[in-house]
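hey so i finaly got around to running the thing on DUF218 domain-containing protein from Rhodococcus oxybenzonivorans. pasting the sequence first so u can double check i didnt mess up the copy paste, my clipboard has been acting weird all day
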Amino acid sequence: MRRWRGFAVSLVCALVLAVAGVGVIGYFVYTEARVDDVESVDAIVVLGGEHDGREQYAMSLARQGVSENVVLSNAYWTGDKQMAALCATTDPQFTVICLPPEPSTTRGEAILTRDLAVQNGWRSVLVISWRYHLPRARYIFSQCFDGRILVRDVPRRYDFSLAEWEYTYLYQTVGFAKAVLQGEC
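ok and heres what it spat out for the 3d tokens, dont ask me to read them lol
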């Protein structure tokens, strides 16, 4: 009985330390991820995720002269009215390119960007996503795209609970490991 109790206490301590470690490391790697300065690029690429202002942010950057091309990853369901309206945006300062990635993942979005870059002669992109997704997005895009890659987060707050942050950090870490195993596009 004592042996089982000692084992249970050790197991609980190990789990608490693992969760705390993921939280601390995740905070510095993902929540405090490096964000690039805004510079002129050939295209602004908005990754799918949620309609949290990312599309409008990209278009405001284009209106400021950052790029003449805004690529919206249309990774959403076909009946998404907000995406349909965004894809129908016309502006004399920039062109909106709205395509579904294949597969509907960050890797698919990087492949889509690479293909568009080849077709249009693009050598630089600004990728927009969640702050905590930037390290993984930067890595995946570097595996698929030979040009200059800048990453920038959606200007917003994340009001996550500790459990939601833990999940987010684990999800991003597993996604990173998958990207490493997949290698170049």
